[in-house]
Amino acid sequence: MKDAERKHIISILESGEMPSSEWSAILFPNQKRECELIYDGKAREEDILAETMSVPLQQNRLFGNNGKGWHNKLIFGDNLQIMKSLLDDKKSGKLCNADGTPGIRLVYIDPPFSTKKEMQGIGGAQAYQDKLAAGEFLEFLRKRLILIRELLSDDGSVYVHLDWRMNSYVRVLMDEVFGKDNFRNEIIWRYRRWPSPSPNFQKMHDTLIRYSKSKEWVWYQLFESKSESTLKAFGNIKLTTEITEIGTVKKIKTEETSDGTYMSDVWVMSMVQGSASSERKVASNYPTQKPEALIERMIKSSSNSGDLVADFFLGSGTTVAVAEKLGRRWIGSDCGKLAIYTTQKRMLNLRKEIGNKGTSLKPKPFALFNAGLYELEKLSEESGENWNRFVLQLFQCREVSHKIGGIQMHGKLRGKSVLVYSPQALKEGEEITEETIQEIHSNVGKMVGEEMFLIAPAMSFGFFQDYIDCGDVRYYALRIPYSIINELHRRDFTALRQPENENAINETVEAVGFDFNRRPKLKYSVDIEKAKKNALIKIEIFKSDARVPEALQMDGNRETLSMVMLDYDYSSEKGFFEFDEIIYADDLKNNKWTVSFPSEKIGENVMAIFIDIYGNEARELISAKDFKKRTVAKGKKTGTTKKRK
User: For residue 570, how many other CB atoms are within 10 A of its CB?
Assistant: First the structure.
């Protein structure tokens, strides 16, 4: 260690601060790996796997029905918590490919390409801040890569889509997570776009980094057409693939012949261009949409028919759409409501051919799930074992039936007993009071240990404390809906952030814990602007009711609005929301908080979904007659409307 470095570390310690993890390579040189990224906030793999919360999946809606078989999954929530839940499914044998192999055969992710900053700061403070931003992104991605590795089947593969900003860092990161010997390809996607003047060479490609989980992986050789020069030089020679072994590596291939040549790692392919293109139409012009042909190559080369394919940064839904067309099972998740509604619409309007062409294709049954932000009404409808199982998983408890002092217990949390009350188990008006706790204590006493947990609907508790002490035993009240008790989890609940403009769609967001959808306070009026023949929805009051510290500090009107989605022709026969337009809060603000659209688009009903920045929704069904009557909606939970006086 140099003198300057030694003096600097001493000054840090004397000030009472902790040195950043970047100093570990200097302070402990013998612990350096062969190749490792060092940045502040880097956690141990063991801690990531142990401390990531597993949140249950609440089925919101089922599209189609095939009995008790596999249903493809579209999931709204934080992908880290979702993956931890799926990992529990893998361990219990519920997450399998069609051939019974546990795990996911292929994962493709297109994560946000770092942050708003491009890590190019020059000079002290700015350069340091950019380093911190880069480290945060890398750790954000590393956590997810670790969970992906655990979710993959033993012969599975992962493709990570990157651009020039962070691809070199992520390559080193993936060497750490998957092992450098499991690196398979760096694929260059060379696309065309309109050039513009620049002091640099034009950026015309993205990078796809491909790793396998082990030394054996599923692989199908793909072919591409031969160039004219190759045909002139060698003629039309047929190529054959076969099962081969190179040392310890076994490649699983198909035996087939082709007039083409083996596909290279440079893929020349256009981006999805033009709002009128067949692919753009089905994804409602999602800003980061990828072409179906790009995803097709990955799925065909690295999975079998019936295999599980997953995308945890789903975006416009291209991956799951192509997986459906190619006969694969699929899981898609995203933290953005726009991505979920875009994908739902896309899956219900599929066409058989790649590129959204050909005849209509009815998808196999799939289910829409919530993970981390739940519908309380749906949960309240559950009873018995279904209720118990869901709420136990919600609070990270194990389902363990046992009795203490004659009282039936339902689970264990950190080795301590858990008693669950379902809404149906409680008589109408019955409360869990301090006297109830005393009665339980008189039966279980010290046999229950130092702690015991009670889970029940929030309105069932007749006291406000998080816990009550009886003798040497502490009885915790775990309420549904629920704000995390810091004493139990030692971390605050953080909500998913929804964008307020198109540029914010792919910002990195992360949620911890769970909450229940709380309908925002909403008041609006509707009108017809006869001169321009426009229908108007004027947002007069919008306030989030989310129980997060940030929301509780916001007193202004409409500052928590994220977006409004519209389905111009919603019908009870159709039975599901299929949005036609999205208007972001920034655009609404510039338009005096008024949604405006051509009145000729109005069908029998307009369904409007008002979404706050935390993902909570207020749904309003507005009939065509209401617009003509110039009505005003009070935004009550009943969703009723009244005439303006």
Answer: 24
The full 3-state SS of 147-195, as one line of letters, equals HHHHHEEEEEEEEEEECCCCHHHHHHHHHHHHCHHHEEEEEEEECCCCC
- Cα–Cα distance measured from residue 365 to residue 641, given in angstroms and rounded to the nearest whole number: 35
The dihedral built from the CA positions of residue 509, 338, 564 and 514, taken in this order, carries a sign that is negative
The answer to whether residues 472 and 501 touch, using CB atoms and an 8 Å cutoff, is no
CA atoms within 13 A on the CB side of 453: 21
What count of residues does the chain have?
645
How would residue 24 be classed by pLDDT, with cut points 50, 70 and 90? low
| Contacts for 574 with CB less than 8 Å, ≥ 6 apart | none
Compute the distance between CA of residue 180 and CA of residue 174 in angstroms, rounded to an integer: 8
Say how far apart CA 139 and CA 34 lie, in whole Å: 19
CB 365 within 8 A of CB 68: no
The pLDDT of residue 112 is 83
User: What angle (nearest 5°) sits at the alpha carbon of residue 532, between those of residues 526 and 535?
Assistant: 20
Write the pLDDT tens digit of every residue in 544-596.
988 776 766 777 899 999 999 999 999 888 778 988 999 999 999 999 999 99
pLDDT tens sequence across 289-329: 899 999 999 999 999 999 999 999 999 999 999 999 999 99
Cα–Cα distances in angstroms (integers) from residue 452 to residues 238, 260, 291, 375, 469, in the given order:
71, 68, 53, 27, 10
231: left (phi over 0), alpha (psi -120 to 50) or beta: alpha
Please report, as a single letter, which amino acid is at residue 346: R
